[in-house]
Amino acid sequence: MSLRTELLTRSLPRVTYEKLVSYLTLLYRVGGRARVMDLVESGVETKGRDVTLFCKRVELIVGDGTGYVTLSQFGRKFIELLQVDQRKAKYYLHRYLYDKLPHYRLFIDVVTELGEATREEIHRVLNDKVKELLPGSWINRNAMTVLMDLARKLDVIEVQGGKVRPRVHALINKLINSMSENVVEHEGYILVRTEDLLAKLQENFNLSEENLAKVLQKTIERSRADGLVTTILAPTSHPLISPEISILKIPRDKLPQFMDLLIQEVITLEKS
Q1: 130 and 200 share one domain
Q2: Which of 197, 177, 204, 172 is nearest to 270 (CA)?
Q3: What is the spatial distance between Cα 186 and Cα 178, in angstroms, rounded to a whole number?
């Protein structure tokens, strides 16, 4: 999807992930439609209508010009996912904002490109890219704060010792790129041998092959149930991989989501 430069304003409404969740959750609970003033009085919205402005901009809600707002199909899907699987919900919102909000997309791309940097370094490079797209434009400190909060709460970045590092998003790209020689593309699908994927996990994570194989099998089973992947029976000599899951067939557009689930499981295991 192309970058929506017409929406690339220098600032963003002052929102946080928590405010966004509280606002959309309340709107969902009252039937999906409410008066903005009632949302202000309930405490989920500010007097400046910041959350409403942000949600309208990214089409999580729709305004009707009468002082009421309605939850969009995208906002509803996020809240419904949040009720059953917080990780899936965060992934959904991350991908949604990456497509809908040019500030967020550029920010994520810059963090991924730099690998590790201070907030100030990221802000400088971010504005260099903005000026290339729209001369005379920039992203201010308030917008930078909003982007940092969203990316951090969505588990896309981590901040330690004044340094910002990419988490899942960058690891997905790294793993996908490293697999390029081991995959076959056919009619919109990616075919990859499970043992090749296991080998790439070993190259990138400091965990035993046995533990990584268990995580991989768990993710494959979960992804099959969710329709993200199908498996092809084929002979394999690897002792930790059964012939039933020897080859993975993944829709090209579902590959990032499958890899996200896999890496999240590996990261969880690393921390345990």
Answers
A1: no
A2: 204
A3: 19
Residue carrying structure tokens 């092959």: 209
With respect to residue 191, please indicate whether it lies within any of the assigned structural domains. yes
- CB atoms < 10 A from the CB of 24, how many? 24
Q: Residue 50: which domain range?
A: 13-78
SS (H, E, C) 245-260: HCEEEEEHHHHHHHHH
Do residues 71 and 38 make contact, with C-beta atoms less than 8 angstroms apart? no
For helices 17-29 and 50-57, what crossing angle results, to 10°? 80
For CA atoms 237, 238, 243, 249, give the dihedral sign: negative
45-90 residue pLDDT tens: 999 999 999 999 999 999 988 999 999 999 999 999 999 988 778 8
Long-range contact set of residues 25-28: C-beta below 8 Å, sequence gap at least 24: 25/79, 25/82, 27/61, 27/69, 27/71, 27/75, 28/71, 28/75, 28/76, 28/79, 28/80
Establish if 3 belongs to a structural domain: no
Phi-psi region of 33 (alpha: psi -120 to 50; beta: other; left: phi over 0): beta
Q: Is residue 106 part of a domain?
A: yes
φ, ψ of residue 166 to 5 degrees: the values are -75, 150
Task: Give the per-residue pLDDT at 136.
Answer: 84
Tokens read off for 176: 């996908």
The pLDDT tens digits for 198-220 are: 998 888 788 899 999 999 999 99
What pTM does this model have?
0.69
